[in-house]
UniProtKB/TrEMBL annotation:
Highest taxon, organism lineage: Bacteria
Enzyme Commission number: 2.4.-.-
Boundaries of every Spore protein YkvP/CgeB glycosyl transferase-like domain copy: 183-327
InterPro entries: YkvP/CgeB_Glyco_trans-like (IPR055259)
Transferase in keyword set: yes
Keyword vocabulary terms for this entry: Glycosyltransferase, Transferase
Protein name: Glycosyltransferase
GO function terms (MF aspect): glycosyltransferase activity
Length: 330
């Protein structure tokens, strides 16, 4: 199928993995990033589009023209800030082509709610709460599509796990942007005597000493991410507070790599996991600390659970599986 994909080209983004997986499945994909179409650094263009209504319209008219010119059989959009007029222009230029939106994030990232006033043929979201709200309250043609992992990027490390743990020498690791909610939770673990190393982006606006003291100042992706997550004894994965009935993408990446994670309890995890979720989830931060302390000195159990989960995720939760589900709905 000939597909136009409109979204970020940044490595390890949803759109990056969709493009990679669609190509792996032999589809003909034209991947368009808004950064491809602006003559100035995108961070300035982004704010100009927020402040100047005419510039916003101009920018997305260029996007629509570019997408129409590719003559696709399907248009997939992921940006939440896409101007509704852009979708109108695409529909006018491609009257018989389905235009869909895939939202990979939790519900606090909906910008000005542009997707709700845009004429998409179908909407895909990972949160069952949002599926219900969008479908039954707003009457939108909405489908459930959980996050996933890319087996060509989120790969199992071939080094012996026991040797790798000795080499990496990390009890507990957490990674990502250190938002205040995440920092508070991590700080509670530190106060419980847990040694935790932090990778990703620190919070420069509201830094906390206990957090900055544990930061490695390294942003991990690709093979390095797999090495650190697999080499750490435990990955602490605390979901955003707006993950109402959903899991973050880290849940699938960690599982797909074959690392051992402890994360927030969500009922929906029972759908994703082949392991009893009570074995690796917590309902309060003290349960998280207790679970971490329980598993730290049980490497064989950790490795067995992680490998069982990895095989299950490989068979059920890759982007190829999600694309198959998506195409079956349209």
């Amino acid at each position: 199928m000939k597909i136009a994909l409109f979204g970020s080209k940044d490595f390890d983004s949803l759109e990056y993995h969709l493009n990679d997986s669609l190509n792996f499945l032999k589809h003909d994909v034209t991947h368009i990033d808004i950064k491809d179409l602006v003559p100035i650094p995108y961070k300035y263009s982004y704010w100009a589009s927020k402040l100047l209504k005419k510039y916003d319209s101009y920018l997305f008219e260029k996007v629509a023209t570019k997408i129409i010119a590719t003559a696709p059989e399907l248009v997939i959009c992921t940006y939440r800030f896409t101007h509704p007029d852009c979708i109108k222009l695409i529909r006018k230029g491609l009257p018989n082509v389905a235009i869909i939106h895939v939202n990979p994030d939790q519900m606090t990232t909906l910008e000005y709610q542009q997707i709700f006033v845009s004429d998409y043929d179908a909407y895909f979201t990972k949160d069952l709460f949002m599926v219900d709200f969008m479908k039954n309250k707003m009457g939108l043609n909405t489908f459930y599509l959980p996050e996933a992992f890319n087996p060509r990027v989120h790969k199992k490390v071939t080094t012996d796990r026991t040797l790798l743990e000795k080499e990496v020498n990390i009890d507990v690791v957490a990674f990502g942007t250190m938002y205040p909610y995440r920092a508070r939770m991590v700080e509670n673990l530190i106060n419980e005597g847990i040694d935790i190393k932090l990778y990703g982006t620190p919070d420069k606006r509201f830094p906390r000493k206990q957090i900055t003291d544990n930061f490695t100042n390294e942003f991990i992706t690709g093979d390095r991410k797999a090495e650190i997550l697999s080499g750490a004894k435990i990955v602490f994965n605390n979901f955003h507070f707006a993950e109402v009935q959903s899991a973050n993408v880290k849940f699938f990446e960690i599982g797909g790599i074959g690392a051992f994670q402890i994360c927030d309890y969500k009922a929906v995890l029972e759908e994703y996991s082949i392991i009893d979720v009570e074995k690796f989830t917590f309902k309060n931060i003290h349960e998280a600390a207790d679970l971490i302390k329980f598993y730290l000195d049980k490497p064989l159990l950790r490795h067995e659970l992680a490998e069982t989960q990895r095989i299950h995720f490989m068979n059920n939760h890759t982007y190829e599986h999600r694309i198959s589900e998506l195409l079956s709905k349209i």
